[in-house]
Amino acid sequence: MSVGHPERIEACLVAGGRYHDIDYARRELLGLLGEHERVRVTVRDDWEDLDVIGASRFVVSYTCDVRPSPAAQVGLADWVQAGGRLLALHATNSALDLGGPRGVESPRGFPTFADTLGSQFVAHPPIGPYTVTNAAPDHWLVAGIADFETTDELYLMEHRDPDALEPLLVTHWLGIADGFAESDWTTGSAERCVQYLRPLGAGGVLYNTLGHCRGHYDMAPGRDWWPTVDRGSWELPEYRELLRRGLRWAMGAES
Hints:
Helix content is about 20%, strand content about 30%. With about 260 residues, the chain is α/β, with parallel strands linked by helices. The strands form 3 sheets. Strands 2-1-3-4-13-12-9-6-7 form a 9-stranded mixed β-sheet. The longest helix has 15 residues, at about 235-250.
């Protein structure tokens, strides 16, 4: 590094998968990353390039049903343990099998990956409005973010070790998740994590479940045309602020 020049920061954006407008999410995230001149981004559509991930200070992910191989799961876990920071968004923790007699199945096929993330997607109710509540108003990642209303996918997740997570944003919901094999969510706690921190070794994961997006052509091959363009929380100023703070955290900020 030349004297007087800020350090270059290597980063990786993993953006790929199904049933979402990945092109839109990739473009928006690259725009936000581009606000940081010294961040240089390599883009991949899956988790298998461990050389790129290993050379990155941080990783940002927006995926759906992108299932890392066993080697990639271990490599990513080791990278986080050694100090890497992962900003994981929306359906990163999903595995989806469609067409079964009970509805959409969420197979538990990547245990190491789910443990690293701190969660695995199981189901969501039909997209509709819900309130996001600030669960940690003194934490800099959400300080000053008032409770807000969004229309997005409300994620119902399995957490292997809930005590290892630091909830930052939550919502509350009990009901039936129509269309999913594990559809009955009428009992137990109504609190659902929307954003949390998951410390792991010298690194950690910041997971935000918001940010569904879908265009006309994103449900193929099951449906050739989706009648609406869905942007979920992307158009909310609160979500953009959460993403900007999340990127600062990924770069190493502590406040």
